[in-house]
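Methods — Computational structure assignment.
A single polypeptide chain was analysed. Its primary sequence is given first, followed by the predicted tertiary structure written as structure tokens.
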Amino acid sequence: MELLFEIFFEVYIELMMYIVPEEKASSKKYRALAIIIATISMLGNLALFIWGGILLFERHNFWGLAPIAIALIWSLAQIFLGFILDQKKNK
């Protein structure tokens, strides 16, 4: 579980660094800001997923699918936008 957490964290950091302009990417201030945003985003996403799982499996509430879907859409959107920004930077 710890390895999975570290992999997701590194992916989030890389995705957040795509947003930062190239000349500012080496700045410690912008790197720290990207790490903070990535951490908050990842923890929020994890919290939504766990909350949805608790609602769905322990309380047998169908509305548990909503937080799970939001967490998955949020993750996929970040990955997709990260790849798009990377493609724009490489052109």
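Note: Residues 28-58 form the longest helix (31 residues).
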